[in-house]
Specification:
There is one protein chain. By secondary structure, the protein is α/β, with parallel strands linked by helices. The protein has one domain: Maf protein (Alpha-Beta Complex), CATH 3.90.950.10. 30% of the residues lie in helices and 24% in strands. It has a 6-stranded mixed sheet. Helix 4 packs across helix 5. The relative contact order is 0.15. The model has no long low-confidence stretch (mean pLDDT 95). It binds inosinic acid (IMP). Inosinic acid binds next to strand 3. It is an enzyme of class 3 (hydrolase). One of its GO terms (molecular function) is XTP diphosphatase activity.
Length: 200
């Protein structure tokens, strides 16, 4: 059984990765499984300028400390009319999802539909302590920013992100979102790499 640590405390993300590897000889562990082996308040400092930098900082920090094959992700929203903002600051763009969404809608108030292009990006990094290398993949979901908050599912910027179905991410099922999302695409790319390189 191949053991992989997913360096996150988000149970939703753990479930998604477990689902990707279901029926295979892979066990996905979370940071909570290693609480006794980590110093108090141990964390990776996400100081990178890109999603890839931050995902690699996280996978290396935990993989080296715990000497285990480690996956870490970093994701966020890039809005073209705002020169790519909020980008790596997606989490810190306001104090709540509601505040972050309202801020973006305000900033885009005068922007016409044709110029409201945006994309979600997910960088997913796998660190192997045996060769001390990272293998990192990216998944992208293209869309547009809506004019109002629509839908109640999902999280984060989902209610203002119109995807390829013409609905916001908050108006579609989780299964559908996983099929077309940045994270779903990145998870599937990493699965192919792991299947090839770790003979599972
Ligand atoms: P993290 O990758 O969990 O650190 O997420 C960064 C931030 O990007 C989150 O707090 C959300 O605001 C945003 N984000 C990332 N993925 C999604 C998504 O699938 N839907 C909505 N917001 C997302």
């Amino acid at each position: 059984m191949l053991k992989i640590l997913f360096a996150t405390t988000n149970p939703g993300k753990i479930r998604e990765l477990q689902e990707v590897f279901s029926g295979m000889s892979v066990e996905i562990l979370s940071i909570k499984d290693f609480n006794n082996h980590l110093p108090h308040k141990f964390e990776a400092i996400e100081s990178g300028k890109t999603f890839i930098d931050n995902a690699e900082i996280k996978s290396k920090t935990y993989g080296e400390k715990l000497n285990i094959l480690t996956v870490a992700d970093d994701s966020g929203l890039e809005v073209k009319a705002l020169d790519g903002r909020p980008g790596v600051f997606s989490k810190r763009y306001g104090n709540s999802d509601e505040e972050r969404n309202r801020r973006l809608l305000n900033e885009l108030q005068e922007v016409p539909k044709s110029n409201r292009t945006a994309r979600f990006v997910c960088a997913l990094s796998l660190y192997d302590p045996n060769n001390r290398k990272c293998h990192t993949v990216e998944g992208i979901m293209q869309g547009k920013i809506s004019y109002s908050i629509q839908g109640a599912q999902g999280f984060g910027y989902d209610p203002i992100f119109i995807n390829e179905t013409g609905k916001t991410n908050a108006e579609i099922s989780l299964q559908k979102k996983n099929q077309i999302s940045h994270r779903g695409k990145a998870f599937r790319k990493l699965k192919i790499y792991i299947q090839k390189n770790y003979k599972i």
